[in-house]
Write a structure and sequence with these properties.
Shape: elongated
Largest sheet: 6 strands, antiparallel
Radius of gyration: 45 Å
Length: 559
């Protein structure tokens, strides 16, 4: 519910802060005092069109901040969580208007768009006035309200889930069916490509090994000649390094007997001799093992040529050939499975459609029964509200099977006849703003326990009524306030006296500037305000006593 609102420099409000609570709150004041300013400010905070002309004269910016307690509004909490704007059970909405530039909006301190404000506002506040009925004129809201009233919410949810499942299967079936010819061509191509790539029989690491072998075979002469020359140099030739190291070792052996410090040097020479002998032996073994078959080079180059030709054909790097084979094989398997599954998929789709239609028809029956009960209930409230002979009905038009949707088969329309003899017509086409307001009030009272929107705002819904009907309107508004928060702008004392709390709107001129102020009324001040509404500018003891009596007759505050 709306817990507080702060307004700064908006129209004729300089500074205003109000703390609000549950129940029914009446806003009253002299004609022209600006009773609707609070409603206008709230609408602005919830995404209504911003206009720089709303900024107070002489100011460069205006600001509205509205705070909401979401403890009893899980839909709004869930929406905020989805939008990453949540802050527990509290929600602070701020709208800033600037004379030069674009208006800005914030939800829980984070920047928000106008669309986000409106989406959140639809979950938090429902405004009812002579020309503003945020939810009751929307077909979706009418259908949801009927389902809630009739207790078929779970049925409606089940139909929506069955429809989602059927659409999923139907879309898949349509996609597979429409692509059957293209799929056949693709299957033929994939089978050829998989066979071609598999025939290559490329193994992991083979490409690197072939590249290394080709490089070696292409340089075979150089490898053989250089290796043989090194054997001569190290071991076999005249003056070979091994012989020279041997002589050096022998000479050092004689010197060690003279100076023992040369022993380490002799050991190094002996070690070098051994290493040279081992190196020469390795080179001889290398020459013995060297493949001298010239046909092998041709085979390797042919294999590499085939690999690179296939890579160019598929416009990929040779290293990706094995990966490409795996991808084509996976796609081929999936398409072959699609072909096999098409028949099963069609049967599943038909079964899902049959289940959907059965559930939708059952929901239609339940809706028609609930529509009759809701029509009778709202019609009865209309009589109490002074619309004698008026009728309310809920039309449930059930379409053919082809029209089934997530909501079922039905188009739900609230219809009304405001006066005897007039035909029923859609609620949205009711001409009189006052009648529309009272019909809206009757619907809200009839479904008060079912609505999910926590705050209801009624802007002069009592226009054109008086006397006993006005008191009934007040009682109905109070009844609404016992289920949800109800804010009511009214000029009738019979309505205001029924409120749990009352706010007085006053306008005054100071130094040539007009200001509006809204203040909560205590018991004594409230008697005076009701007396003013009864008797005009002159308040007598009689009117004051009458006002006190009206307040005493209101039921005890249950909040």
């Amino acid at each position: 519910m709306l817990s507080h609102i702060a307004i700064r420099d908006l129209v004729i409000v300089s500074r205003l802060e109000l703390t609000l609570s549950g129940g029914m709150t009446a806003l009253t004041g002299e004609t022209g005092a600006g009773k609707s300013i609070l409603i206008d400010a709230l609408g602005l905070a919830l995404g209504e069109k911003a206009d720089a002309g709303m900024i107070r004269s002489g100011c460069e910016r205006a600001e509205v901040t509205a705070g909401f307690d979401l403890a009893r509004c899980p839909q709004a909490r869930d929406w905020l969580t989805e939008q990453a704007l949540d802050d527990g059970d509290d929600c602070i909405i701020r709208r800033v208007l600037v004379r030069e530039g674009r208006a800005r909006a914030f939800i829980n301190g984070r920047s928000a768009s106008g669309a986000q404000l409106r989406a959140l506002g639809d979950l938090l506040v429902d405004i009812h006035g002579q020309h503003a009925h945020q939810s009751l004129l929307r077909p979706v809201a009418q259908r949801s309200l009927l389902d809630a009233y009739g207790g078929q919410g779970e049925q409606a949810t089940a139909v929506a889930e069955l429809h989602r499942r059927w659409r999923e299967l139907d879309n898949r079936w349509r996609t597979l069916t429409a692509a059957r010819e293209q799929r056949a061509e693709r299957l033929e191509l994939l089978r050829f490509q998989v066979e071609e790539l598999a025939e290559l029989n490329l193994t992991d690491g083979e490409l690197d090994a072939l590249d290394a072998e080709q490089h070696r075979l292409a340089n075979l002469g150089s490898l053989q000649g250089t290796a043989a020359a090194l054997v001569e140099l190290l071991y076999a030739g005249e003056g070979a390094l091994r012989d020279q190291l041997g002589r050096a070792g022998t000479e050092l052996a004689g010197l060690v007997d003279i100076d023992a410090r040369l022993a380490e040097t002799r050991e190094l020479i002996d070690s070098a001799t051994v290493q040279v002998e081992e190196a020469a032996a390795n080179l001889r073994q290398y020459l013995d093992d060297l493949d001298m078959d010239p046909a092998r080079l041709a085979d390797v180059e042919a294999r590499l040529g085939r690999i690179h030709d296939l890579a160019r054909k598929y416009r990929i790097q040779p290293t990706l050939l094995m990966e490409t084979l795996a991808e084509r094989q996976a796609e081929l398997t999936a398409l072959e499975q699609d072909d096999q599954a098409l028949g099963t998929l069609e049967a599943d789709r038909d079964a899902a459609c049959a289940a959907l239609l059965a559930a939708a028809r059952s929901l239609s029956d339940a809706r028609r029964a609930a529509a009759e009960r809701l029509g009778e209930t709202v019609t009865a409230f209309m009589q109490e509200l002074g619309m004698v002979g008026g009728r309310f009905a809920v039309a449930v038009e059930t379409g053919g099977d082809a029209q089934v949707g997530a909501h079922g088969l039905d188009a739900v329309t609230f219809q009304v006849s405001a006066n005897p003899g007039q035909p029923l017509q859609p609620l949205a086409k009711v001409a009189s703003g006052g009648e529309l307001s009272r019909i809206s009030l009757a619907i809200q009272v009839a479904t008060a326990e079912l609505g999910s929107i926590p705050t209801l705002v009624f802007d002069e819904v009592d226009v054109g009524i008086g006397g006993g009907v006005a008191e009934i309107v007040g009682r109905l508004l109070r009844r609404l306030g016992e289920a949800r928060q109800a804010l009511c702008v009214t000029h009738l004392p019979q309505v205001a006296a029924q409120a749990h709390r009352q706010l007085r709107v006053q306008k005054q001129a100071v130094d040539g500037q007009t200001y509006t102020d809204i203040s909560p009324l205590g018991d004594a001040a409230r008697v005076d305000e009701i007396a003013r509404m009864l008797g005009g500018t002159e308040i007598t003891d009689t009117t004051r006593a009458h006002a006190a009596e009206m307040l005493r007759r209101a039921p005890d505050d249950p909040t």
